[in-house]
Amino acid sequence: MQISAADAPPLAGKRASTIAVALIAAFMAYLDATILIVAFPSVSMSFPHTPLSRLSWVLDAYYIVFAALLVPAGRFADLYGRRRIFAVGVALFVASSAACAAAGSVGVLITARVFQAAGAAGLNAASLALLLPHFGRSSRATAVSLWGGAAALAATVGPVFGGLLVHHANWRWIFLVNVPIGLAVLLMLRGVGEAKNRDAGILIDVPTMIGVSAGIAALTTGVIEGGNWGWTDLRTLLCLLVGGVALLFAADWTIRRRDGISEHAVAGIDRKPLLLSNVGTLLFGFSFYGLMLALVLFVTVHWHYTSLQAGLVLTPAALTTALVALPAGKVADRVGHRVPILPGGVLFFLGTLWLAAHVDSTSGFFANLLPAVLLTGAGIGMVGPTLAGASVESMPDKYFGTANSLNSASRQFGAALGTATVIAIVSQGHSLSSTHFHAIWLILGIVALLSMPFAISLTRSTDAVPENNQMHSAQ
């Protein structure tokens, strides 16, 4: 295909602006996905008469809605303009963040979090899609790892930053800080060019979106409430049954339809890397987000740490994740994605084994907890961003928004199920021994290890799709 002048690569100035905006947006979206974890005990104290199972929806409603809207937001971005959808997402994110800060009840807070997740979906879906056309196919894993490193850094720094805000102010400030950052990003958008696809096909696969969203929501409800209702209670069983049926319906619909998300098959695109990396991302997201929540709850319950101290516990993991992510992407560019993913998954698993073997109510941070934090942090940096890179490697440029959204949705659905599992175990009783947390850490480590077989089948496909962006760019 001939590339017109309008399709030419953007100027260096716009490239720099786009990269800066994409990385800040990734950081902001995933910061808010995790920053509330360390503030969760403080939020609970503000609403003392609210059961923990209901309060957990402040976390899980965000994860589920964020994930559910990522794919349609990605399709909107591909069709109607990535810069435009990005701007709408940032504006909604800023407004709903202010509403979260002002919330006077749990119901209002959960509702505001739903709208905040919708805004996060828009800005997240468009951010990587804006970034990737500025990198060649041979360096795509590096670009995704750069973006994923910003997201991973936010996900691990979030508890630290949240702890500082809660310690020096209160939990409402974790939402207020989004306002000036979001406004600054909107101003920076003036230096970013628009990009969209003239022929992106169907907008969204509505049945698949509804099936997956309803399925994950029902499963999450069953897991969270199972401890209160009873695991053999009709309501628990019904939630788990409805969730499973909805997910099976969504999978069957996607496979059978030739014009939905599965339209990639029609376009002659290898969907195997997309499928394998997204399943692996869901499983690893389960473990990653579940581990953060479990660590914060453990140190506040058994070591009586403040919110600030609990956040600082994860600082070594944040630094390790940031240091490892970009080199892991470069390795993936040269020799394939599974090379950094497999050892990363093993490191994460070893970290959870260390927690189960060496950390209890009488142990210390430096001798007992720090080694596990470093191991899991290195694993996160090697696995998370690299799986994201694998999910878009075989995609032509016109599907960047959709492919990135699918991967991010998988991660957030995993987060919802992982945190729900932790809450379900923690809410079993008021007095939790360290043995309960040992069980949680082992479960999270095993699930992370289960994501590794999907990485084994990942192969490089750098020659699968011609490197031309087939895009309409409005410079």
Automatic annotation (TrEMBL):
One of its GO terms (cellular component) is plasma membrane. Residues 18-463 form the Major facilitator superfamily (MFS) profile domain. GO terms for molecular function: transmembrane transporter activity. It is a multi-pass membrane protein. The chain crosses the membrane at residues 20-43, 55-73, 85-108, 114-132, 144-165, 171-189, 201-222, 234-255, 275-301, 307-327, 339-357, 369-392, 413-432, 438-458. It is found in: Cell membrane. Keywords: Membrane, Transmembrane, Transmembrane helix. This is MFS transporter. Pfam families: MFS_1 (PF07690). It comes from Mycobacterium spongiae.
